[in-house]
Amino acid sequence: MSRIEGRFESLREQGRKALIPFLTAGDPEPGMTVALMHTMVEAGADVIELGIPFSDPMAEGPVIQRACERALRHHIGLADVFAMVREFRKRDAETPVVLMGYLNPLEIMGYERFARAAAEAGADGVITVDLPPEEGEDYVAALRASGLDPIFLLAPTSPDERIERVAASASGFVYYVSLKGVTGAGHLDVDAVAKRLDQIRGHCTLPLAVGFGIRDAESAARLSRLADGVVVGSRLVQVAADHESQPDEIGPEIARVLREMRSAMDAGAN
Question: What is the per-residue pLDDT across 115-127, written as a single tens digit (0 to 9) for each?
Answer without folding.
Answer: 999 999 999 999 9
